[in-house]
Amino acid sequence: MDPHFLHDQSKPSPEISRKDGHEATLEPLELGQRVRAIRLSQNLTLEEASQRTGLARSTLSKIENEQISPTFTAVNKLVHGLGIDIPQLFAQPSTDSRASGRRDITRAGEGKPHPTPTYEHELLATELTQKKMVPFRTRVHVRSFEDFPDWVRHDGEEFLYVLSGSILFYTEFYEPVELFEGDSAYYDCTMGHALVSTSEEDAVCLWVTA
């Protein structure tokens, strides 16, 4: 369970080969299939992709057909020309292209309540298991940092959005900052953090933990 409630797979890197006097190249990891899939998803012909990336049409064709491995220079041209990130280029294609159909709707006020001494959490999307994100709505009762026995810390990253009121956002390595309705923060959860309401009414926030 998320320590917020208690208190109150990365992809392998591509193999690299280097020949003396030659630029390093990337070993084929079905890279050609990825390049073709990305190009087609953008409705680009080989000629159009060539113009965007600055790579010769024949070079692109050879890459897509696994006849050559792209140099790092070519990879950079592909990434910038196609408007993608390097991890997208090396992500393995899914073996099952069907949508999983996972969906969970939480009506207003119908989340699972989880009160604590400092926060009043409303857990959202509770019907889904093995979620990649944990969303919850929180009413911040606490008015002083001294009411926390210790920093809140846990694995992952977190997004915080102030729905109403204002808070003082404490983080372990930074000065406290006041956030108002519509303000947000994204931070590393292994860094100690805590919220304190500064508005007359208890502040209400949306938290999404990944």
Architecture overview:
Helix content is about 25%, strand content about 30%. It has about 210 residues and is an alpha+beta fold. Helix 3 packs across helix 5 (about 70-80). The model is unreliable at about 5-30 (pLDDT under 50). Strand 7 and strand 8 form a beta hairpin. It has six helices and eleven strands. The chain has two domains: about 25-90, Orthogonal Bundle (434 Repressor (Amino-terminal Domain)), CATH 1.10.260.40; about 110-210, Jelly Rolls, CATH 2.60.120. The protein has helices at about 5, 30-40, 45-55, 55-65, 70-80, 85-90; strands at about 15, 25, 110-115, 120-125, 135-140, 155-165, 165-170, 175-180, 185-190, 195, 205-210. The strands form three sheets. A six-stranded antiparallel β-sheet has the order 3-4-5-11-6-9, with no helix packed on it. A three-stranded antiparallel β-sheet has the order 8-7-10, with no helix packed on it.
Summarize the structure.
With 210 residues, the protein is α+β, with helices and mostly antiparallel strands. Helix content is 23%, strand content 28%.
Task: Provide keyphrases for this structure.
210 residues; alpha+beta; 434 Repressor (Amino-terminal Domain); Jelly Rolls; 2 domains; 6-stranded antiparallel sheet; 11 strands
Question: What topology does this entry show?
Answer:
Layout lengths: L2 H5 L8 E2 L7 E2 L4 H11 L4 H8 L3 H8 L7 H11 L3 H5 L21 E4 L3 E5 L10 E7 L16 E8 L1 E6 L2 E7 L3 E5 L4 E5 L5 E7 L1
Antiparallel strand pairs: 1-2, 3-4, 4-5, 5-11, 6-9, 6-11, 7-8, 7-10
